[in-house]
Amino acid sequence: MEYEIKIPVRALAEYVYSSGSIESGFRTATSFTEGSRIHREVQKTYQENDQSEVLLKTEILYEDLHFYIEGRCDGLLFSDDNITIDEIKSTSGSLDYIDANTYPAHWAQAECYGYMYIQDQDRESIDIQLTYVQKTSGEIKRFKRSRSRDELEAFMMHLIMTYAPFAKLRKEHRIARDRSIKELVFPFDQYRKGQRQLAGSVYKTISDGETLFASAPTGIGKTISTIFPTVKAIGEGHLQKFFYLTAKTTTRTTGEEAFKLMADKGLRMNVVTITAKDKICFTGEGKCTKEYCVFADGYYDRINGAILDILGEERSFDRVCIENYALKHQVCPFEFSLDLAYIADAVICDYNYIFDPKVSLKRLFDDQKKQTVLLVDEAHNLVDRGRDMFSSSLEKASFLQLKRDYKGKNNDLFQSSKQINDYFIKLRKQAEPSRTIIFKEILSELNNLISGFIQHAEMELLKGDADNSVLLLETYFTAQNWIRISKLFDERYILYTEIQKNEVMIKQFCLDPSFLIRQAGEKFKARVYFSATLSPISYFKDMLGGEVENYVTFIPSPFSSEQTEVWIQPLSTRFKDREVSINPIVKTIYHTVKNKPGNYLIFFPSYQYLNSVLDEWHVHNDDITTLVQGTGMGDNDRTVFLESFKSDNDDPLVGFAVLGGIFSEGIDLKGDRLNGVIVVGVGLPQIGFERDLIKQHFSASGKNGYDYAYVFPGMNKVLQAGGRLIRSENDTGMIILIDDRYLTAKYQSLLPVEWRNFLILQSNSIL
């Protein structure tokens, strides 16, 4: 039985002919749009009868593999009886470093097109040309060779034969995968209440190629209820791949556990987890050059062997697995995980690999995206993460230091850094005495200066000079991102300058990320945004780029209100009242824990408030074990904190933590591991300049700007924190909400139904 393999020309050529090292932490960052512009400039020089962007395709049967190969050649040039395939490549580097044999993969790509053309037109020979363009100067360098039909047929067969072992592995895997999916049953004896409804909504969304916003309560088992139907949809041919996107490491672990459950039931899928580069780098320095790292040196010479090995032996590629095979084959574990992400059936990773314009997996072709689904876990986090990903800032200090570093060393870079530093000085003078300036439009003069800096920085970095500072590389990337974001700048942005003494910071701030989130996801087959706290749904649908026709599902809580004892203490926690609130809060915590001993989490809106209460707590309490969430806690510290919450603790335990932090969502403390949650305040983000800009923006568009900037994001943190308490049908416990605003109609409307049957706790009462 024949097995179909559809592959783009470029992917085939690069698989066989890529070689060498990961060149550095610096890679020339010519964008796709800029590359296209340079291509068009060259194509404008073609003669009248020449053709550009010509679609070519071919079919080749090799053993039981039926290859469908296609791509667009940049140019098809006609001169007398000669025909030339032209392949255009743009580079930021000097053309002096490029000769005819520098990039074999480029010849391979062009010769694939040559083979396709002579097969289609029944010719005996064709010319192949590589055209390299220096993107700054426009300088052009060309290499040309002639190829006969026999030579190209032999070349093409070499490509196919080299690619075939990988193709056969993929064929065998997909047959086994699809068979296992058809036989797969839900990995639990029965669906928990609400799980079947959520799973059905996800499956329908995928089969319809739609977008779903799903609000499903904490503890329902959202992860398995979204992943299982997506896996089933692969087995039914609705898609070939999906991403499980998360904001935190804890939810990534939950995703891995769901796949393990299904693997134990017979599922055979390739699942890769992408771990952040700074965590998985073997050297711990992140210097990706062959001079600094043996795992970068010769990476592309070894990567195909590493991929064939891991695909032949493993199905789940988690961090430990990737590290083991990376050590075995001496390849960079981070780049290895990215290469596996293009092959795997499912990818568990952070949001930024899909949504962040500077990080995303750019080798996913559009036709692949059409067969790929996005599952966005804890989607409420994507609003502020989106703002961060689509914003960009620059600081004067970096350019001042580079001006000093390159004076007398590189005049172009010195002058460029000086001009930008001078521009910042002009902004500082303009801002006096207010210390801030707000702009509604991009600053063309600054952008031109930044573009010039990028060009000079690229030329300096391409020298590979060991004396080049880390600062130059970091500033180069920051400048690249600035220009990238400036191309997105529209009415949903604002640009502002902030002055702190001699420092000047300028930021392109994304007020409303909804359009860009929708744009990043729209080429995929379907999108599922789910969370326990997509409330109010109208707000999150708006902020995540939803449209009127998108699907929405609400899953009621499977747990009864009797499982949760809810109290509201009407105490003001507003900033002006915090000093007088400290003592009553300490008394409430103490009496609660003493009267109903157990394990408690206490959540505060800020570290400052937490520490103020903690100081008073230590004065009056020395007999209750107390844990405290610190700033910048490492993985080990987090683990120790959570493992202290044991179901068989003999003595009470209190954990002080912050709302919106690592312990307020994505953790499971089932049964008696957690007996109560106390939330201090209504979670409002700290009043500040950017939050007020958000408020003003949405107020101007006819919405409640204060709710959009403060109330809805704040209450989301409260709901997430309270959701740590009830994780199963057998859990019981207490929630105390400390703030008088919880007794107002607005805040009560934002509470879950099962919390609304509350009791009021007066400051002088004892539970």
What does this entry look like structurally?
It contains 26 helices and 25 strands. By secondary structure, the chain is an alpha/beta fold. Helix 17 runs antiparallel to helix 18 and helix 21 crosses helix 22 (607-620). It folds into 4 domains: 3-165, Lambda Exonuclease, Chain A, CATH 3.90.320; 195-254 and 347-390 and 513-558, Rossmann fold, CATH 3.40.50; 392-510, Fumarase C, Chain B, domain 1 (Orthogonal Bundle), CATH 1.10.275; 561-760, Rossmann fold (3-Layer(aba) Sandwich).
Please name the defining characteristics of this protein:
8-stranded parallel sheet; Fumarase C, Chain B, domain 1; 26 helices; 767 residues; 43% helix; alpha/beta; Rossmann fold; 7-stranded parallel sheet; 20% strand; Lambda Exonuclease, Chain A
